[in-house]
Amino acid sequence: MNVQCPIIFTTAYDKYAIDAFNTNGIDYLLKSIEEDRLKQAVHKARQFSAQIDLNSLIYLSNLVPQKQTKSRFMVKVGEKIKSISDDDIKLFHSYEKATWLHTRSDREYIIDYSLDDLQHMLDSTRFFKINRKYIVSIDACSHIFAWSNSRLKIDIEGIDDQIIVAREKVQEFKQWLDR
User: Fold this and answer.
1) Beta-strand relationship, 151-155 and 143-147
2) Is 86 exposed, middle or buried (0-12, 13-18, 19+ CB in 10 A)?
3) What number of other Cβ atoms are within 10 A of residue 3's Cβ?
4) 131, 164 in Cβ contact below 8 A?
5) Residue 61: what pLDDT?
6) 3-state DSSP call for residue 44?
7) Domain 72-177: which topology?
8) Mean of pLDDT values over 100-107
9) Given a cut of 80, is residue 48 above it in pLDDT?
10) Mean pLDDT, to the nearest integer, of 30-58?
11) Would you call 64 exposed, middle or buried from its count of C-beta atoms within 10 A (0-12, 13-18, 19+)?
12) Quick one: pLDDT at residue 67?
């Protein structure tokens, strides 16, 4: 496609930045977009086209809905359906091709989402996918220990499994903890 105008990419994912610049984008803004950062990008865009109205862009950026996170999960208990708040969840884990939800009261329920699906549904300030089998709640991580091969081990009260942060996730996990 032959683009005839400046493009400012906006997304919640920094992993697309290189692609944006490879397709002649002039700037790349991560959500949630700060007004000063938007002004800088618009100033850069005006160098290519004088027809950009900053006030209209600010107005439009405020209209974009923020990512909605899932805060409740419906689980089946016998013949009944129970609603579980994300505040009551310690972790999610996959086992034998099923995904399990663990509550603070040490109950387990099968849910109809994969961990990859959950990773995009959950509030990323409260839940973190530490490896291919676990997503943990920040509130449930009672103790964290240095582990072999530059990994970390997490103790979660009521969970007997060895929960290990994948080596490639350790640095990101530490940053998540330190927010």
Assistant:
1) antiparallel
2) middle
3) 9
4) yes
5) 64
6) helix
7) OB fold (Dihydrolipoamide Acetyltransferase, E2P) (2.40.50)
8) 95
9) no
10) 76
11) exposed
12) 63
What is the sign of the dihedral through the CA atoms of 97, 94, 173 and 145?
A: negative
* Residue-level pLDDT at 92: 97
Place of tokens 């509130």: 139
Give the residue extent of every domain in the chain: 8-63, 72-177
Burial 13-36 (b: 16+ CB within 10 A, else e): eeeebeebeeeebbbbbeeebeee
CA distance 2 to 130: 41
The encoded tokens of residue 93 equal 């884990």
Most confidently modeled range among 3-7, 12-16, 31-35, 61-65: 31-35
Q: Does residue 24 have a pLDDT over 90? A: no
